Amino acid sequence: MDIQQLKVLTEVARTGSYTGAAQALGYTQSAVSYHMRRLQQAVGSAPVVRIGRRLQLTEVGHVLLRHADAIFSALRAADQEVASVVAHGGGLVRLVAFQSSCVTLLPQVVERLRVSQPEVRITVVQAEPVEARRLIRAGEADLGLLCNWENEELPEGEETMLRMELMTDRRFVVMREDHPFAGLRTVDLAELADSSWVMESFRDRFTAACTNLGFSPRVVATVDDALAIQALVASGLGITLMSEFALRCPSLPGLVRRPLRNWPLRRTYLLLWPDMVRVAAVAAVVRVVRATAGEFAAEDPGTAPGCPTGG
């Protein structure tokens, strides 16, 4: 087998068809068919099988794809490591991160790098963990700040990647200071069954938890901007859930936050291909992110300027 065949397999797996792979690679469909046929001959088994209208990986195909990802990662790392050496430790690091980290952790990371490592340049893309994971696997991002819940299994696709745990944070109920539950030390989700909610688009876990408790949440607003969510809560439209991470950013007056009982901790971690840690610029960013996250983990979010008071 060769690199070209693995590249074609990767696109066939991503698009689910020879036609889609050909379009993505700029090949003819016959060229894609040729490379896939040669790959099957080389390994002695079909890497894909047609199920309905899509091509899906066989067990052999999954093994090949996993190794292909690692090979392409090593090639990208070699290219960037050479570029970093030429730039005397500098270079570009493409980072993808979830929303609340973009307004809390990352600004401090960028500022520290600007002072201590001015030769390192950063670009940032905001994305939810599923999309961030895809970008890293595809080589469209070098480093990711991701999050998941402590009771979740290792997300698919991370088995061969390097995962660096940074910190955990709790979930809080955020409400007006005149809310009936504002005087409680903690709040259980079941106690909020009759509440109106201002929530983000990505709320599958919240909805499932409500269903398990026997109620359907009355979501009166769907907003993906933290400040807009707080403004609507402050207006009295409803209450919301926010992470400790998000509570470190400037918040509106008149709001209080209370820990949500019986809710799993959220884990924040760095995700990258193992080969990338040898790239000086990437290693520099990793060091600063870990140091900054360590300070965050040791800090009480309630002491952050502008956070909702009363907790």
TrEMBL record:
GO CC terms in record: protein-DNA complex
Extract the Pfam families matched here.
Answer: HTH_1, LysR_substrate
Provide any one GO MF term from the record.
DNA-binding transcription factor activity
- HTH lysR-type domain spans which residues? 1-58
Q: Which keywords label this protein? A: DNA-binding, Transcription, Transcription regulation
Superkingdom in the source lineage: Bacteria
* Signal sequence interval, chain numbering: none
Family recorded in the similarity comment: Belongs to the LysR transcriptional regulatory family.
This chain belongs to the protein called Putative LysR family transcriptional regulator
